[in-house]
Amino acid sequence: MTLDWHVIWEYRSDLLQGFVLTLQLSLVAIAGASLLGTLVGCLRASGGFLARRLTALYVELLRNIPIVVKLFLAHFILGIDALPAGIAALILHQSAYVADVTAAGLRSVPSGQADAALALGLSRRRSFSLVVLPQAARAMIPPLTTQYTQIVKNSSVVMLVALQELTFMTQRVEHETFRGLEAATTATILYAALALAIAAAMASVERALERRAA
Questions:
Q1: In which region does residue 178 sit, left (phi positive, over 0), alpha (psi from -120 to 50) or beta (all else)?
Q2: Residue 120 burial by CB count (10 A; 0-12/13-18/19+): exposed, middle or buried?
Q3: What's the predicted TM-score (pTM) here?
Q4: How many domains is the chain built from?
Q5: CATH number at residue 184
């Protein structure tokens, strides 16, 4: 089978457009899932009885509903436009996993650390933000990297509501040229590049946290 990479050059603008949308969706979803997931995770790890029960229900419910169902519910049932529906589905889906990572990271910090900070005169809030959270953050970086990469991969689901992201454009190239292998290979390289960029950025954050703790 002869590969024709000239097709990719002809459709470069479509593929670039799809890649840019995938990048935008991923970055917004990463930010939203991080904020929401961290809040839920903190409540799950250190909140009261009711807060722990409600956040546990939140995590279990969202983890066990497929992201496609969330997307269809937001777009076709609630009538939300395709783009915000896709962003909302990505954020809600991945925030449940980020919450689990956050709660586990906070539990990994010995309780004596917070007690020592309180004994030194720090308030409970400052003890949490200055002592407990920085230590938990270092333990959270590797699993968070996995979750952020998962967001990139899950972003392809928005093609089901006709958002023209990278996978959508890849299928368009295949349908119009019958050059699916070339299109799929190009998309794979672009997805891998985005995942590697996330991994590199998180590794930099991890090194910065280690230097700060030294």
A1: left
A2: exposed
A3: 0.91
A4: 1
A5: 1.10.3720.10
Residue 97 to residue 27: CA distance in whole angstroms: 17
Q: What digits encode the pLDDT tens for the residues 193-210?
A: 999 999 999 999 989 888
The domain of 204 spans 6-213
In this structure, are residues 139 and 110 in contact, taking their beta carbons and an 8 Å threshold?
no
C-beta separation of 37 from 144 below 8 A? no
Helical residues (DSSP H) of 47-179, grouped into ranges: 49-63, 67-72, 82-107, 111-119, 124-127, 133-154, 166-177
Q: How confident is the model at residue 85 (pLDDT cuts 50, 70, 90)?
A: very high
1 is a domain residue: no
Give the DSSP per-residue string, 20-78: HHHHHHHHHHHHHHHHHHHHHHHHHHHS-HHHHHHHHHHHHHHHTS-HHHHHHIIIIIS
Domain annotation covers residue 188: yes
In this structure, what token pair is assigned to residue 135? 């230590």
Q: Distance between CA 195 and CA 206 in Å, rounded?
A: 16
Return contacts of 6-12, CB within 8 angstroms, 24+ apart: 7/173, 7/177, 7/179, 7/182, 7/183, 8/173, 8/179, 8/182, 8/183, 8/186, 11/169, 11/172, 11/173, 11/176, 11/177, 11/183
Name every residue whose Cβ is closer than 8 Å to that of residue 103 and which is 6 or more positions away in sequence. 41, 42, 44, 45
One-letter identity of residue 65: I
Are 95 and 37 a contacting pair, CB within 8 Å? yes
Q: Is residue 179 a part of any domain in this protein? A: yes
